[in-house]
Sequence to fold (355 residues):
Amino acid sequence: MSDFPVFVLRNASGGELTVTSYGCTVLSLKVRDRRGEWGDVVLGFAELERYPRESPHFGCVVGRFGNRIARGRFSLDGRDYQLECNNFPGGVGCHLHGGVRGFDKRVWEAERVQGPYGSGVRFSRVSADGEEGYPGEVQLEVTYWWSDADEFRIEYVARADRATPLNLTHHSYFNLRGEGEGDVLDHVVRIASERMVAVGADLIPTGELRAVAGGPLDFREAQRIGERIEAADEQLQFARGYDHCWVLQEKAGPLLCAADVYEPTSGRTLEVWTTEPGVQFYTGNFLDGTLRGKSGRAYPFRGGFCLEPQHFPDSPNQPAFPSAVLRPGAEYRSTTVYRFGVREEASGEARPGGA
Fold:
């Protein structure tokens, strides 16, 4: 693992993004706070060899299908498929984030690139027919860009020789106060969505796209993560907090702002832009204080949050959801932008972190 290449991308203001070809993993992301001090805002390990053994998907690309597929089963074009089951919420097996050895546990080819969004790294690999039980060979490219405006931009492109489900997303755990700096309950979050994908006790969608108005999953107005996370709400109890997909648009479409986050102590801000129809908001509910990160400090319960743009969970078994099937002759394209900034206490206005 320690022999895998590591790429360091720096922008004009000194912001730094460090990535490796193992799982397209983000190892660190350093941006300034309102005092001008640098901080690493993603969770992870100092030792690369820990990622295959211990990582709960820190900083990686997940696929072929991000999120859950019920019992690892789906039917496509009249044929049944059984995928690897690697997650057992409520004691019921499901396929999570691509299976036992998904894209996050594969070594990708990698090369430096330069383009309109700054400096970057382009990752590529071929996912073989039958990998983790999926049909068809898929050719993949994922490009990470790091711009002078403190924008971490991800562009996904894929083609397949047979019809197959494909749902790629990025899985960095963020703590805008700084990795290892406690929990994220004081972060203030807004999600631009009126509906969420309701789940059962097994965290598999019921098929209902539920209105969030007036409930603890309503983030249309900015709220502290910790404000309602312990509310007596069945959805929160199933997931031990927030681990749900919010509906953004009817299908993959134009780049839009899905969510924004503000951390009051540091002043750091994060906007998440995407072309995807949904975004999964996860609050580190399965972190338990046993993993020690880059700082040497333990990552506590809810010590990081994820905002993962994606198609809805279990889409291959939910015909009413936007289709996540890639067919021969078509091209999968998806874009995600994580835009960092800082907010001044006096004005309340956000600006780029490097400004």
Observations:
- The chain has two helices and 27 strands.
